[in-house]
Amino acid sequence: MNKTGTRRGNHEGSIYKQASGRWRGQVTVGYKSDGRPLRLSYTEDTRERVARRIAAASASYLGGERFTNDENLCVREYAEFWLVHVKRLEVCEKTYDWYSTLLYQHIVPALGEMTLGAVTAQHIQSALNAMSDRQCSVRLIEGVRTALKQIFQAACMNNLVKVNPVLPTKIPRPKASVRAANRKIKVIGREQRAALLEALRAEPVMRPALLTLLQTGMRTGELLALQWRHIDLNRRIITIEQAAVARPEIDREGRVRKPKTEIGEPKTEAAYRQIVIPRSLAEELIVWRDYAEHTLKLKVSEECFVFCNSKTGKMRTYTGFRSSYYHFLDRHGFSHEGMNLHAYRHTCATVLLENGVEPKLIQQQLGHSSITTTLNIYSHVSQELLTTAADALENMI
Q: How far is C-alpha 178 from the geometric centre of its chain's CA atoms?
């Protein structure tokens, strides 16, 4: 039978479904020193994921052919090729943006002009140690090491370097003071909350949004994606089933453009939830709905966004809402008090803990996948709760 036109090209590999239901693919990306083919295999839950990994591996192989005779190949040039032609095929836009940040803000300044083959484990360890000395977060340092490991792994596969110099390196252990600072959660204290509520009396647009964050503990993305159909004011229940997601746009050259805010899924499966709200918040939302409809002349229907742009009625973007919030802080003298938007979520959980609510219920309220997350993040509760615990211990004597 003539199969002209149906044969796969070089480096496209083969993909098939296993009996277990998972997909497996194999691709030849080169040849070993003895002439035998070098094949890579991938197993994923979907055919698309396997195809993307095969495409990335093939792109990496072609990069090896491109740079084979370049003795002066520098880290920056090869890393840029790897980012645009390999990593871009494997990950979503947001993850690509993260790797782009790692490359241009940390890897290139530290190692970019060195030739690829001259980089040693000591060079990389020194770069990681320097990041630790600058008190960069462990997550950021781990991200840089992971990116470097993948870059040099691709270079090894293409015989551009003999060994991966990242493998012997370690993540520096941060100083105790830095670890303590990283564990400290940001909570809006009792006096700050009183001042905040007083300031919100004169803020008809910002007031309902911030009170909702404070009294529900929902994420900012969940707040922005909230539509009136998600709120049952009679039963005082808010249903979380979607979230605003900022997705960076990537052009043909792999450059990251301004993120675009769109509707997506909540962060985790546990984030799909129903939140019972206080009666006072339900009343605030009724007042806000009337104000939006009659004063701002906005359309209010089941499909309209609750905390929409007050001029256009469209869903607010992350950038737009954050900017409005910072202007609010400036107007009322809160600019230097560490009241970022995520602090409202921390504060909600802390107040619930102070009032004796079980951690399992707080986990459900905030939409954490694991109770461990709830306990780890909120193990540092407010001073009032610690004082109560100390008083209880005193009664033992």
A: 22
* Residue 72: how many other CB atoms lie within 10 Å: 8
Q: How far apart are CA 240 and CA 284, in angstroms?
A: 19
Q: What is the pLDDT of residue 10?
A: 44
What per-residue confidence (pLDDT) applies to 75? 94
Coil vs helix vs strand at 18: coil
- The pLDDT of residue 69 is 61
DSSP state of 234: T
Q: Which residues contact 280 (CB under 8 A, 6 or more apart)?
A: 215
Separation in Å, CA 6 to CA 1, 47, 159, 227: 12, 19, 32, 48
Could you tell me which CATH number the domain at 14-177 has? Answer: 1.10.150.130
Topology classification of domain 190-387 = hpI Integrase; Chain A (1.10.443)
Question: What are the residue ranges spanned by the domains of the chain?
Answer: 14-177, 190-387
| Interatomic CA distance for residues 397 and 394, integer angstroms | 6
Output the DSSP codes for 361-394: HHHHHHT-S-HHHHHHHTSS--HHHHHHHHHHHH
CA distance 320 to 84: 29
Series of mean pLDDT values for 10-residue runs along the chain (397 residues): 41 76 80 67 83 70 59 89 82 85 95 94 96 89 96 86 94 70 71 94 96 95 96 96 83 70 87 95 96 94 94 90 94 85 89 86 90 71 62 65
Kindly state the DSSP code that residue 312 receives in the 8-state scheme.
Answer: T
Angle, helix 93-102 to helix 138-157, in steps of 10 degrees:
90
**Cβ contact 330:240 at 8 Å:** no
- In the chain, DSSP assigns E strands to 14-17, 23-31, 37-44, 231-232, 237-240, 243-247, 260-264, 273-276
